[in-house]
Amino acid sequence: MGKIFKWLFILFNLFMFVISFKACGGVSEIYNSSQNEYEQAGAAIGTTIGMGLILTIWVFIDIILGLFVLFTRPKR
Could you tell me the residue ranges of all domains in the chain? Predict the structure, then answer.
């Protein structure tokens, strides 16, 4: 059971890294195509809120999966 949680932990971190990388790439396109400073400010604020939400979810699920990995590791 411990190996399953360990692989879930690793795969989840890779998945979240890819999601964060793609989100940053998509935001740069929106920011560069904005027409004026108000659209740029909106894009910057939306990016901050969105990335904050992604990072918060990442940390909470990482803590939960990390505890599962810790508590299901084999005894020596």
Answer: 2-70
